[in-house]
Here is the input.
Amino acid sequence: MLDRFKRNITYLRISVTDRCNLRCHYCMPAEGVEWIPHGSVLSYEEMKEVVKVAVGLGVNKIRLTGGEPLVRKGIRNLVKMIAEVDGVKDLSMTTNGIFLEKYARELAEAGLNRVNISLDTLDPQKYSRLTRGGDLNKVIKGIDAARKAGLTPIKINCVKTDLTTPGDIQSLQAFCKASGFHLRFIRQMSLTDGSFYPVEGGEGGRCNICNRIRLTAKGDVIPCLFSNYGYNVREYGIEEAILMAVGKKPATGHNNKVNTFYNIGG
Ligand code: SAM
Ligand code: SF4
Here is the structure.
């Protein structure tokens, strides 16, 4: 599926929920979030249908994100349903890792190929502050469980903010090097201001080679993180919503005043 700029769209990122067990300071306010009403959240059946249609249009890579994908009940079922779709070559997840100790194995058995885990510091107090209550020890155990379950190659995403110190970076580099994890740095962005940066060590943010579209938990297909357009699969039908979003993919994004990181999924 080619867009107006001859980019081949092969990658669909699905935000399976806007809910999260953490409240990272750059992503969510401490309180007062208006959640998507339950009735508007796509069922797993609907998400699978979107994947099937997307694959029919040329998508072969799927990433599950959130909010936190592991807080949605029965997520292993969705993984299994998507892994069974013919033509899905790469099925991955972006997670904060807290629940991976519990779920890594069953996710791998259900057909998940690999995980990206968000981790901004190895200092337990600082981690708790940045995430408003997260337990670093659980993430470390989660990463280990993912490695043992074969959810590899494991990528660690670190969001660089004003609070990131050279010590944070060095210890993450040493940790990842020792265990063979890929470390990527994402500079803090603002969707509303349109401040955006390419991922250091990754492909995100390189507009000329962007091959992505996104599906939110309520079923909007979004052409670009920094775009206000979105086409709902329940309103337009799946194929039409995807084609309209692809048709609106900008050469480069500007800003997004409609959505947030936690409902698009980064
Ligand atoms: N909860 C999962 C996690 O944290 O990995 C998945 C969803 S989270 C929204 C996806 C990615 O977006 C994470 O790597 C997170 O660090 C990143 N992110 C959130 N807010 C951001 C911001 N303001 N600037 C840059 N990256 C951000
Ligand atoms: Fe939750 Fe991920 Fe946002 Fe942190 S970055 S608040 S873990 S959705």
In short: The chain has one domain: 11-264. The first strand starts at residue 11 and ends at 15. Residues 91 and 112 are 6 Å apart (CA to CA).
